[in-house]
Structure formats: structure tokens, C-alpha cells
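Worked problem 6 (solution included).
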Amino acid sequence: VGVDLDEQFLGIARVEFKRRSVPNFSLIRASATNLPFMDEFFDVVTCFLVLPHVPNDKDALAELARVLKKGGTLAISGHGSGFPLRYVKRLKFKPLLMYLWSLIYAVTGKKLIRNTLQNYKNVCHDLAEMGFVVDGITLSRKSFGLVETYRIKASKGE
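Solution. The predicted structure is:
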């Protein structure tokens, strides 16, 4: 089962799944903060590079927790503070905007635009508050020693 808010991405996924002969797939247009599934529906939930794009990280994490069975596994990835630095070599203005938006989000809790950067420690803290146990963290430190991407594996408490 795949979920995305953007019908265009769902269309791309449908074509790829059919091309690769993926059996029994279902793709649904929905928001990460309002998933159309019953409580404790899935054994495993993945959320790759979604948090930078949702209005509120905690709302999305709470919704992922809701649809995950007790004892289930949650896998999340996101952009760390080193992510936009790769644009610096291309002399783009985007890195400065991403840092500005992320600073505003950190101070106010409001996202003004997509592509905010997450502090993986804050994500882990939010998960712990929701009763998750973080089983593993993988960090990619590629840009000037800063985390470019993070991956978190967590288990939902029984």
C-alpha cells in the first residue's frame, strides 16, 4: 500500500509497479496527517522524505503511530541540516531559504513552505513521547561534516 498527496507521483508509481510486475499493490491519494486506515492496521509503516513536506511533524508522526500495530516497526527518513549545502556548489539561493524556513519552523513551530530541515534528535524525541523505542539511527554526513539525510527505525510500544 502506498500513499501520496500528489496524484502525479501516484501515477508514476502505478506505471513503475506495473512495469516491474509488482503484485497486489494499492496506491491511495491521502495526506500523511489524515490516513484512511483503521487504527493499528499495519505491521510496518515507512515514511521516506515526507516530514519535510508536511505542515506539522508531530501531527504526521501521530497519524503514523495511529495506523501502526503495537510492536510494529516505523521507518522514517528526512533531510538534515547538511542537505541544502550540496546546492552551494551550484551557487543557488535555495540553501539559504531552506535554512531560513527551518529556523522559522524551529522557533515558531510553523512551516512556511516545503523542504524544511528536521533535526533527527527532535524526531527521536517526538517518537519517544509517543511511546516508540528508537532501534536504530543511520546518518549520512556528506556536506561539511553535517548530516545530509537521516534514517530512523523505531518500534511501537506494546
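Discussion: The chain has a mean pLDDT of 86.
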